Amino acid sequence: MSDSYIRKFMPNRKHIISFVFIIISVLLFLSGFYRAYRISGRHTMIEFTFDYQIHKNDSILLSLRPFETRLKEAENDTVVIWGQMGSLNPVKDYQMFMIKLAGKYRPVMVTMNTEEYDKFLNGEEVTGYFTEKNFNDFPDFVLNMHNYYELENKITDKDYSKLGIVIVDRQKELLSFMWGIPFLVIGLILFKIAGSVFFYVPETTDK
């Protein structure tokens, strides 16, 4: 009498590891496509005349120099740097500036020691997107600027916005989805090596 077999889903360790790599690749693809979409349709500064026209995740082709003014008792204007932030990447630190756009003072974050950093300081065209992330300390800074800087008028709550700009490398943002390709390839290779996730096992019958 021949034995009966049933098909069971039985992934092994290699299958599980391959699934993890494939899931990571999918997440990186989704993140990359979102980042590319976010900066794909860049607005010009002319389109942002009033504050209400600006929304979170809008992209912009910016060509403004950072805000400059004199420190108290100083003779010359200097670029206002209101903060700096490190990252998990030891060679990727960010510096915080400010600009005046659409009638509001706004924070700007840009990666130091990059081409975009130099272009922004020189007032050349750079790509950015609007966000409030990482700008929570900006209100405290601008509201107290008059204590340290020479200003024509004291900045009030009506004069600034936390909706600022993060300047990015547009080419890298458009291609960021490609980070998912190595994980997908590794996941598919491991899945191929692991073989089928289904196995046939003898059917047991209770008497």
The percent of residues in helical segments reads 25-40%
- The first-to-last residue Cα distance is 17 Å
Query: Low-confidence segments, ≥5 residues, pLDDT <50?
Result: none
Quaternary form: single chain
**Overall radius of gyration:** 26 Å
The total count of helices amounts to 5
Tally of strands: 11
List the helices and strands in order: EHEEEEEEEHEHEHHE
Structural class category: alpha+beta
- Strand arrangement, largest sheet? 2-3-9-10-8-7-6
Strand content: 15-25%
Main beta sheet, described? 7 strands, mixed
Shape: elongated
Quick check: average pLDDT? 89
Mind sketching the topology for me?
Elements: E1 5-9, H1 13-38, E2 43-44, E3 59-62, E4 68-69, E5 78-79, E6 83-85, E7 94-101, E8 104-111, H2 115-121, E9 126-131, H3 138-143, E10 164-168, H4 170-174, H5 180-194, E11 198-202
Parallel strand pairs: 2-3, 8-10
Antiparallel strand pairs: 1-11, 3-9, 4-5, 6-7, 7-8, 9-10
Describe the structure in your own words.
The protein is an alpha+beta fold. The protein is 29% helix and 24% strand. It has five helices and eleven strands. The protein has helices at residues 13-38, 115-121, 138-143, 170-174, 180-194; strands at 5-9, 43-44, 59-62, 68-69, 78-79, 83-85, 94-101, 104-111, 126-131, 164-168, 198-202. The strands form three sheets. It has a seven-stranded mixed beta sheet. A two-stranded antiparallel sheet has the order 1-11. A two-stranded antiparallel sheet has the order 4-5. A hairpin with an 8-residue loop joins strand 6 (83-85) and strand 7. Helix 1 runs antiparallel to helix 5 (180-194). It is elongated.
